[in-house]
Amino acid sequence: MSIRSLPNVPSQLQQLVASPSVSATNPKLDMGNRGVIDLLAAWLETLGFAVEIMPLQDQPHKANLIATLGQGDGGLVLAGHTDTVPYDDNRWQSDPFQLQERDNRFYGLGSTDMKGFFPLAIEAAKTFVDKPLQQPLIILATADEETSMAGARALVKAGLPKARYAIVGEPTGLKPIRMHKGMMMERLRITGQAGHSSNPAYGASALEAMHTAMGEVIKFRNEIQQRYQNPGFAVEVPTLNLGCIHGGDNPNRICGHTELQFDLRPLPGMSMDALRGELHQRLKGAMTDEKIQLKMDSLIGGVDAFEEPADSELVKVAEQLTGHSSESVAFATEAPFLQQLGMQTIVLGPGDIDQAHQPDEYLGLERIDPMVETLKGMIGRFCL
Ligand SMILES: [Zn+2]
User: Fold this and answer.
1) Which of 211, 271, 299, 350 is the most buried (most CB within 10 A)?
2) What is the pLDDT of residues 94-139, one digit of tens each?
3) CA 349 to ligand 1 centroid distance, Å
4) Active site residue 216
5) pTM of the model
6) Catalytic one among 145, 170, 186, 334?
7) Angle between helix 34-46 and helix 8-18 axes, rounded to 10 deg
8) What's the 82 CA to ligand 1 centre distance in angstroms?
């Protein structure tokens, strides 16, 4: 079979790409995803899926979609996010919102990460629409994955969808992924007291306190790297990067305020809350001057590390169907949220991560048939 025998794939992907759904922390760039959700809902409804659109509570222009074929307990979720990152217009060779086929590739914003997954999931589902499913097939489309993961968080809160297995179609080059690190972005703010630099007693230097705090953060990092290692990752230890620092204004003023931002990428088995708590405790303990105040908070909600056991049924079946043993990736996904909903979860998709978040993002046409075949195998195994 070739892409030519799947005529709906290019036309559906073209429409999904043409429907802008950028997620950005900058409100000027941030958009809704309802265009993409409405397209998917219409296509899936035509195929006989029961379709539920769930707007996000404080962002009604963004929504999740749960489309269900068949009923009963258990079943399989094919999950993807509908949003993309912002784009750099003048670095694209063609219009990012117009799907272009050239060099055996589909070029377009979101082609690989990850609008391209949906037409393939729909193509695989089509084979099963007139078969009596013993367990439901659910196509799940989420909002806001690229920034806050608000869509996935809302699903966890709602306890939906309910199924036994989930595949997240993020770009993994057709390989099953059963582990990734978590991601936290934290901010440390230190307030001291400004004053004339000629006499240290006139103030309390937030900059010197930050120096102490940074030493403590680095010591903490070294300790957690001693405590936790996982040879399943290219970087075997949890990482902590001091990303940026701001503070002070003039050489002859005692610095009154500094701010440090860092990210921390925990391994599976490390709790984000425990890490925050431990670090905060230590930093507070290191501040000896009572004129110094220290505050730590999170810039984002954070994403837990993810690990599906190597011997779980879903991992085994995915390894069989793809011919690849399961691996880990360096990027975070919605997988831990689906796992929290009680599903065995893997990440497995047609695109390549080195194509994601890039100008001239593309999906190789040769990825389409194998992905559709793998998904058919999965549905056959878990829904029939
Ligand atoms: Zn993605």
Assistant:
1) 350
2) 999 999 999 999 999 999 999 999 999 999 999 999 999 999 999 9
3) 10
4) no
5) 0.94
6) 145
7) 150
8) 9
